[in-house]
Each structure stands twice: as C-alpha cells, then as structure tokens.
Amino acid sequence: MTTYSDTRIGTGPFLFVSGQTPSEADGTVPGDVEGQVRLVLAKIRDRLAEHGRGWDSVVKLTYYLRDIADLDVLREVVVDVVPQPRPAATLVAVDGFVDPAFAVEIDAVADLGAA
C-alpha cells in the first residue's frame, strides 16, 4: 500500500496549507484516529477548494502523529481519500499537540501551476 510518491515536480506558484488539526468548528474533536485523519484531510481539501484546486495539485504532505502505532490507520485513510499520484510525504512522530485530544496534524504544499 503506497501512500506517497518518492518525488513530485512542481512549477509554482505554490500554496502552503498550514497544519490542519482535528477540531470541528465547534471545538469538538473526533474520539478515534480514523475520524481525526478524515477530518484533517477534509479541512485540507476545503483549503484547496478555496483556491480552486483539488488533491491533484498537492505535491507534498507532512503528517504529524502523536502515536506511531496509529500509522496503519493513517495509511488506510490516505489511500481512501488521496488519489494517485499521491504527494511526496514526510511522517513525523511528536510527543504531543497543543490540544492533548489531538492524535494527528497534517500540512500540505500545493502547486498552483499544476493543471
């Protein structure tokens, strides 16, 4: 199961999407990792849509996980949500987030010059 590409070529300009966290508009946080990953990816999708873009424009994702044991869940959701060719990616294990209920945060780089 490949969740990333080893390389992607970008031409720019680029859109940098800040780390998206798994908090709903009302401040609630899904209780399970799958729900958190799905929410974070939906928030990234929405930021892309604000600029008239979709997942095909994303050339880089950085995943931050509090518990590396959640990697399989993250991978399953990414395969389900992010189409091929998948962006290049980096995974970082962190000790914690600003809200202890968060299990994941993801940021993105999109190529606005991409078709």
Automatic annotation (TrEMBL):
Transmembrane segments: none annotated. Its EC number is 3.5.-.-. It holds the Pfam family Ribonuc_L-PSP. It is an enzyme of class 3 (hydrolase). Keywords: Hydrolase. This is RidA family protein. One of its GO terms (molecular function) is hydrolase activity. PANTHER family: BLR7761 PROTEIN, YJGH FAMILY PROTEIN. Gene3D superfamilies: RutC-like. InterPro entries: RutC-like_sf, YjgF/YER057c/UK114. SUPFAM superfamilies: YjgF-like.
